[in-house]
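Posted in: Protein Modeling Q&A

I'm a second-year student putting together a small comparison for a lab meeting, and my supervisor asked me to include a predicted structure for VOC family protein. I've never done this before, so apologies if this is the wrong subforum. The sequence is pasted below exactly as I got it from our records. If anyone can share the structure token output, I'd also love a short note on what stands out.
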Amino acid sequence: MASRYPITFFYYDDLAPISQFYEQVLGLELVLDQGVARIYRLGEHSYFGIVDGQRGHLKAQPRSAVLLTLVDEDVEGWHQRLQAKGVAGLSPILRGTYCEHFFFEDPAGYALEIQRFHNPAVAELFR
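Accepted answer (user: helix_wrangler)
Welcome! Here is the predicted structure, written out as tokens:
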């Protein structure tokens, strides 16, 4: 089954500080505000949503067990911007075998990562 596009949803107790983080700190484009959920564009055909955990299908969890990875060529620029904004849980830039990346947290403690693949052929697989 082929999907037209993915939307990944995270659930929160309070959307106000979370929407501010994704819109003002990360600069994600808000595509749709449904009240109970806000959906953002991550790429040409990929989306991410935040949901009111009191009203949505699932409930907010006390500890995140997921990682949202955003792929971007400007890992250093992202790291500098997030450091300047005092984002929580910001790791140093890590240079691994396959990618350069770093981790951080949103205001509710969900884990996020920004990475760049070393191998251009691998990066091209995801374009």
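A couple of things worth pointing out for your meeting: The two ends are 20 Å apart (CA to CA). The chain is about 20% helix and 35% strand.
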